[in-house]
Automatic annotation (TrEMBL):
Protein's name in the database: Xylose isomerase
Active site: 99, 102
Annotated gene: xylA
Subunit structure: Homotetramer.
Lineage: Bacteria, Bacillati, Bacillota, Bacilli, Bacillales
Residues engaged in binding Mg(2+) 2: 266, 269, 305, 307
CC cofactor: Mg(2+)
InterPro entries: Xyl_isomerase-like_sf (IPR036237), Xylose_isom_bac (IPR013452), Xylose_isomerase (IPR001998)
Keywords of this entry: Carbohydrate metabolism, Cytoplasm, Isomerase, Magnesium, Metal-binding, Xylose metabolism
Locations listed in the record: Cytoplasm
Cofactor info, note text: Binds 2 magnesium ions per subunit.
E.C. no: 5.3.1.5
Residues where Mg(2+) 1 binds: 230, 266, 294, 337
Length: 441
């Protein structure tokens, strides 16, 4: 049975097209820097938002109309797989991502949940054979079920630690079975509400132990996916342990895990942490930790994780700037961890939203590539820091300066006056010019 009967394969029709079921800028074949857009952007569909979630919000029930929702239980899980692969094929995305609970319902026991996983994974594996779609990453949902109310690996209860480990173990096996290229850890409940009842040191140490156990098990079974931690501040706990990129890198180094993990950076999580998306990407990039991206955006007027489809070209441009400078994302990709608005409840909206996101990143890629080719920021930044290339500046960089030599220098030069403008407004105007002109070429 077809679930999206009225939709044909989405084609690239160019910027003049008014067809809401066509790409205007994402042209999978088009080459940028010797790689096709498809190879470069490695888009992924998030199973949970696209096939499982129904559009609830804290005040309202589900609104989404999905023609697979006529089924229940395992039949529903199977129908979702059919719908998902039809959707991937028609949209032309190379990857998908899922949590365990997105693909199959939990049973009454862990053994039953694992059995449900096995049934659906076998079906997914078959579908993957007949399509070109691959698994970007899977993960264990160790946050929704009430057993995780006080955390998973950082729970006060050792039984919960064990249960969470068992769920990750199963997903590692499934990742291997399906050829997953990465494996994500988002510590939904790994954090705390109040220090008054929390052993912060033990929780941190346990989290470190948990990640080490996961690394060890992946090695044991020969699963060589890239491990990724996804930072997020607040939501759901007040103090999330993986607050932002800098915090997460510090944590990984403390526990000697920095060579086994990279980061999965989500735009909306960056803004919740009080950073820009590009700040988080840059921080990860300069530390060699940029692994993959959850491509969405927040609503600046709302202070929570709205997971909107990315349409802000300024943001996609500056994000792609970091990704291109990183030499791409390696095994990572751009996963649309994004949901359609509650009012966009028709199935067609799923296509419109993904097309919007893919076009927004295609534009961002073209503009960022041009900015890099023309060295727009590079030349300015190089010039701005030129004082470190000669004289005392070079001594500082080369590690030759001492406080005594620096004092000698300072005594000689007299008062230092700010001698160069930062020119931010002019640079922003240049970005706008590139946004308008790069696409015309
Ligand atoms: C929630 C997170 C989550 C992770 C995977 O805010 O974005 O969906 O991506 O567990
Ligand atoms: Ca995410
Ligand atoms: Ca999110």
């Amino acid at each position: 049975m077809a679930y999206f009967e009225n939709v044909n394969k989405i084609q690239y029709e160019g910027a003049k097209s008014n067809n809401p079921f066509a790409f205007k800028f994402y042209n999978p074949e088009e080459k940028i820097n010797g790689k096709t857009m498809e190879e470069f952007l490695r888009f992924g569909v998030a199973y949970w938002h696209t096939f499982t979630a129904g559009g609830t919000d804290p005040f309202g029930s589900a609104t989404a109309i999905r023609n697979w929702d006529k089924y229940t239980g395992m039949d529903l899980a199977k129908a979702r797989v059919e719908a998902a692969f039809e959707f991937f094929g028609k949209l032309g995305v190379p990857y998908f991502c899922f949590h365990d609970v997105d693909i199959a319902p939990e049973g009454d026991t862990l053994a039953e949940s694992n059995k449900n996983q096995d049934t659906i994974v076998a079906m997914i594996k078959d579908y993957m054979k007949d399509s070109e779609v691959k698994l970007l990453w899977n993960t264990a949902n160790n946050f929704t079920n009430p057993r995780f109310v006080h955390g998973a690996a950082s729970s006060n209860n050792a039984d919960v630690f064990a249960y969470a480990a068992a769920k990750v173990k199963k997903q590692l096996e499934i990742g291997k079975e399906l050829g997953g290229e990465n494996f994500v850890f988002w510590g939904g409940r790994e954090g705390y509400e109040s220090l008054l009842n929390t052993d912060l040191k033990l929780e941190q140490d346990n989290l470190g132990r948990f990640f080490q156990l996961a690394v060890d098990y992946a090695k044991e079974i020969g699963f060589d996916a890239q491990f990724l931690i996804e930072p997020k501040p607040k939501e759901p706990t007040t103090h999330q342990y993986d607050f932002d990129v800098a915090t997460t890198i510090g944590f990984l180094r403390t526990y000697g895990l920095e060579n086994d993990f990279k980061l999965n950076i989500e735009a909306n999580h960056a803004t919740l942490a009080g950073h820009t998306f590009e700040h988080e990407l840059r921080w990860a990039r300069i530390n060699g930790m940029l692994g993959s991206v959850d491509a969405n955006q927040g609503d600046p007027l709302l202070g929570w994780d709205t997971d909107e489809f990315p349409t802000d070209l300024y943001s996609t441009t500056l994000a792609m700037y970091e990704i291109i400078k990183n030499g791409g994302l390696g095994t990572g990709g751009l996963n649309f961890d994004a949901k359609i608005r509650r009012g966009s409840f028709e199935q067609d909206d799923l296509f419109h939203a993904h097309i919007a996101g893919m076009d927004a990143f295609a534009i961002g890629t073209k503009v960022a590539n041009k900015l890099i080719e023309d060295k727009v920021f590079d030349s300015f930044v190089e010039e701005r820091y030129a004082s470190y290339t000669t004289g005392i500046g070079k001594d500082i960089v080369d590690g030759k300066a001492t406080f005594t030599s620096l004092e000698d220098h300072a005594l000689k030069i007299g008062e230092v006056t700010p001698n160069k403008s930062g020119r931010v407004e002019s640079i922003k105007a240049t970005i706008n010019k590139y946004l308008v002109t790069s696409l015309a070429e």
